[in-house]
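pasting input
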Amino acid sequence: MDKTIISLKNAVVEYDEQKILKGINLDIIDKQFVTLLGPSGCGKTTTLRVIGGFVKLAGGEIFFDGKKINSLPPHKREVNTVFQKYALFPHLNVYENIAFGLKLKKLPEKEIKMRCEEMLELVNLLGFEKRSVNSLSGGQQQRVAIARALVNKPKVLLLDEPLGALDLKLRKEMQIELKRIQQDTEITFVYVTHDQEEALTMSDTVVVMNNGNIQQIGTPQDIYNEPVNAFVADFIGESNIIKGIMHRDFLVEFAGRDFVCVDKGFKKNEIVDVVIRPEDIKVVPQITGEITGIVESVIFKGVHYEMKVNGAGFNWTIHSTQSQEVGALIGMNIAPNDIHIMRESEVE
Amino acid sequence: MESTKTKLIASPYIIWMAIFIVVPLCLVIGFAFTTKDGKFTIENIAITAEYVPVLLRSMWLAVISTAICLIIGFPVSFIISRLMPNRQGMLLTLLLLPMWINFLLRTYAWMTLLESNGLINKFLGLFGIGPFDNMLNNQGAIVLGMVYNYLPFMILPLYSVMTKIDESIIEAAQDLGANYIKVIFKVVIPLSIQGIYTGVTMVFVPSISTFIISRMLGGGSNDLIGDIIEQQFLGNSYNPHLGSALALVLMVIVLLVMSLFNQFGNEENIAI
């Protein structure tokens, strides 16, 4: 079995009598790329700060490598953080920023130099040693921040939305870069983001959070294909979420008719959330459609067209490579294994 | 066009400076190098050598006062700069509140506090302690008065640079293994060095040239260079030529000390 490096048990964080974390349980596996994903205010950054030691738990426990570290101050923890706004030391140059942690450990000057150069090479900044950090671009500052944290060879690297301030193209490059660094160094990465695509691209494990609770923990595939509730489904990619009634196993009613599905284990006639991905709705001629609707708008999105279709009392979002006329009457078909049935979620 | 406009707006201040700073400065230099008959002489400057002990005492007390202000002001400013913004405002107002009261009155207040039958001795007397007769009229009382009066001039510039230090930079230092003392020396001090310069200048310069505080709390036996200069203009020993010479020497010393201090600070900055 894989080794657990960090473990949160019933962790509670309060701020001004408001619960930011409502008792979460989370095991982070060693050497994995773990992403905490959720909308702003969901508690993902707070969770990261709890691990870093900057936020104290009001309840529950946190273990690092099997040892309880609830009251261990940040400077004694074997983790390092890449901060959201980089937080580089403006009075030090690139080399001095990276060497900061090693100098505090009083390592021999030779070793410091060697390890810093190794890091500069890893993040592609050789030759920038003497530059002032203020003269660097956002992407370069970001890489200094990563090098400054990684040079200490932490057991766990915490990253708080590190790519948030970069433009799209640079962000994509850095995503691949970070994933490569993680695999090369075999350090556990705990990565915070609100960008679901980023989470799916980079992670071994995704932790979806909302309202101070963990909604789902799983591989990117699990999270995308088998969301446990409507919140996760909606947050991970666009979804059509419609109320339905589960008549019996494998039979659900929504949009005014019965559909065969692959889900079971619900109460008889239980009200459920039915989640259908926009790309899973097939557009067919009106006569052969299970549901019919009128196309209200069509937007070109590059790879596909996004269409809003009004039918059976619901506004459907459809992704299709084929465009339809606005105002056209179309049919829509949904295959049984594209229908995802979820218990009504308490959230939202 | 824009720059001509800017120059025009600045002109009243430039005229003001010319009339009330440059002209008096020229007059001081003029007086310092002339006799009563208006002839050139360096005798006035030569006489100032007699006042070297007073000058040294003034410098010594100013250095001590400045150091104490820095030692008190640094942590206070840092703590205030880390508080919630609304609390910062309140605490700063409280710290600056005494400055709304006249300088002389504040110094008189210390006299009545420190006197042999003053408030402090009366209070201590309630517990059977004292009385202490030697709290007033000594150098300690002068330093106390300077620290009390000039502390806000240390705190304000320090506070204004420290509020610009982002909390995440301090957290980053802790994250990299710095305990609280290391955070202060490796991050907070280097990043507030400009505030330290300004604060030290703003406390040291009035401290070295004060005459009110030394006269009121020093009891007349601890005259500072400021008192000597004042006596040359307003006192019995009326001699504006010597006064000007002393003022000039003092000014040169202050400029030297400050530029030395800045030089030292700059090197320090690079060494970190």
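fyi Chain A has two domains: 4-230, 240-343.
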